[in-house]
Amino acid sequence: MSIAKLVPLLNAAYQRDQSAFNVIRIKVAALEAQVSKLRKFEQPLSDDSTSFEQSHAWSNHLKWREAEARRLMRLVFELQSDLRNARQQLKKSFGRLEAARAAAKTE
Fold first, then answer.
1. For the segment 65-100, what is each residue's pLDDT rounded down to a tens digit?
2. 63-70 long-range contacts, Cβ below 8 Å, gap at least 24?
3. Which residue, among 30, 14, 40, 1, has the nearest Cα to 96 in the 3D structure?
4. Which of 1, 42, 66, 97 is the most core-located residue (most Cβ within 10 A)?
5. What CA–CA distances, in Å, run from 88 to 4, 12, 56, 66, 93?
6. 31: closest CA among 83, 85, 91?
7. Contact indicator for 81, 24 with CB cutoff of 8 Å
8. DSSP for residue 48
9. Taking Cα atoms as reference points, which of 25, 34, 23, 28 lies closest to residue 77?
Protein backbone atom coordinates (compact mmCIF):
# COMPACT_ATOMS: atom_id res chain seq x y z
CA MET A 1 0.00 0.00 0.00
CA SER A 2 1.41 3.37 -0.93
CA ILE A 3 1.85 6.12 1.60
CA ALA A 4 -0.59 8.37 -0.25
CA LYS A 5 -3.34 5.78 0.33
CA LEU A 6 -2.33 5.47 3.97
CA VAL A 7 -2.81 9.17 4.78
CA PRO A 8 -6.66 9.07 4.75
CA LEU A 9 -6.63 6.02 7.03
CA LEU A 10 -4.25 7.71 9.45
CA ASN A 11 -6.38 10.86 9.28
CA ALA A 12 -9.47 8.83 10.20
CA ALA A 13 -7.59 7.24 13.12
CA TYR A 14 -6.45 10.68 14.26
CA GLN A 15 -10.03 12.03 14.10
CA ARG A 16 -11.27 9.03 16.09
CA ASP A 17 -8.61 9.52 18.77
CA GLN A 18 -9.32 13.24 18.89
CA SER A 19 -13.05 12.69 19.43
CA ALA A 20 -12.33 10.11 22.18
CA PHE A 21 -10.01 12.59 23.88
CA ASN A 22 -12.59 15.36 23.64
CA VAL A 23 -15.32 13.18 25.14
CA ILE A 24 -13.17 12.39 28.18
CA ARG A 25 -12.01 16.01 28.47
CA ILE A 26 -15.62 17.24 28.46
CA LYS A 27 -16.61 14.68 31.12
CA VAL A 28 -13.75 15.79 33.36
CA ALA A 29 -14.61 19.46 32.90
CA ALA A 30 -18.28 18.82 33.69
CA LEU A 31 -17.43 16.88 36.84
CA GLU A 32 -15.00 19.57 37.96
CA ALA A 33 -17.71 22.21 37.42
CA GLN A 34 -20.13 20.19 39.55
CA VAL A 35 -17.53 19.86 42.29
CA SER A 36 -16.88 23.59 42.21
CA LYS A 37 -20.59 24.29 42.46
CA LEU A 38 -20.98 21.89 45.39
CA ARG A 39 -18.01 23.29 47.25
CA LYS A 40 -19.25 26.87 47.21
CA PHE A 41 -19.85 27.53 50.83
CA GLU A 42 -23.12 29.42 51.04
CA GLN A 43 -24.22 29.68 54.60
CA PRO A 44 -27.39 31.55 55.38
CA LEU A 45 -27.16 34.63 57.48
CA SER A 46 -27.22 33.55 61.06
CA ASP A 47 -29.57 35.26 63.39
CA ASP A 48 -31.11 34.45 66.70
CA SER A 49 -34.36 33.32 65.10
CA THR A 50 -32.69 30.33 63.43
CA SER A 51 -34.01 27.24 65.10
CA PHE A 52 -31.98 24.21 66.08
CA GLU A 53 -33.82 22.12 63.46
CA GLN A 54 -32.91 24.56 60.71
CA SER A 55 -29.28 24.65 61.82
CA HIS A 56 -29.16 20.87 61.98
CA ALA A 57 -30.74 20.55 58.51
CA TRP A 58 -28.23 23.03 57.10
CA SER A 59 -25.36 21.14 58.70
CA ASN A 60 -26.59 17.86 57.21
CA HIS A 61 -26.96 19.50 53.83
CA LEU A 62 -23.37 20.80 53.97
CA LYS A 63 -22.11 17.33 54.94
CA TRP A 64 -23.98 15.82 51.99
CA ARG A 65 -22.56 18.43 49.61
CA GLU A 66 -19.03 17.76 50.77
CA ALA A 67 -19.51 13.97 50.48
CA GLU A 68 -20.92 14.41 46.98
CA ALA A 69 -17.98 16.65 46.03
CA ARG A 70 -15.53 13.99 47.29
CA ARG A 71 -17.35 11.31 45.28
CA LEU A 72 -17.16 13.42 42.14
CA MET A 73 -13.49 14.16 42.73
CA ARG A 74 -12.84 10.42 42.92
CA LEU A 75 -14.51 10.09 39.51
CA VAL A 76 -12.35 12.92 38.17
CA PHE A 77 -9.25 11.21 39.54
CA GLU A 78 -10.23 7.95 37.84
CA LEU A 79 -10.85 9.76 34.55
CA GLN A 80 -7.49 11.54 34.71
CA SER A 81 -5.62 8.36 33.76
CA ASP A 82 -8.04 7.78 30.87
CA LEU A 83 -7.49 11.37 29.79
CA ARG A 84 -3.72 10.96 29.97
CA ASN A 85 -3.88 7.75 27.90
CA ALA A 86 -6.17 9.37 25.34
CA ARG A 87 -3.80 12.35 25.07
CA GLN A 88 -0.83 10.03 24.47
CA GLN A 89 -2.75 8.10 21.83
CA LEU A 90 -3.77 11.36 20.17
CA LYS A 91 -0.14 12.48 20.05
CA LYS A 92 0.91 9.16 18.49
CA SER A 93 -1.84 9.38 15.89
CA PHE A 94 -0.90 12.95 15.04
CA GLY A 95 2.77 12.04 14.72
CA ARG A 96 1.98 9.14 12.42
CA LEU A 97 -0.32 11.30 10.32
CA GLU A 98 2.25 14.08 9.98
CA ALA A 99 5.00 11.58 9.10
CA ALA A 100 2.80 10.02 6.42
CA ARG A 101 1.89 13.43 5.01
CA ALA A 102 5.56 14.41 4.83
CA ALA A 103 6.46 11.09 3.20
CA ALA A 104 3.60 11.44 0.71
CA LYS A 105 4.90 14.86 -0.34
CA THR A 106 8.33 13.43 -1.12
CA GLU A 107 6.92 10.61 -3.28
1. 889 999 999 999 999 999 999 999 999 999 999 999
2. 65/38, 65/39, 66/38, 66/39, 68/38, 69/35, 69/38, 69/39
3. 14
4. 97
5. 25, 17, 48, 33, 9
6. 83
7. no
8. T
9. 28
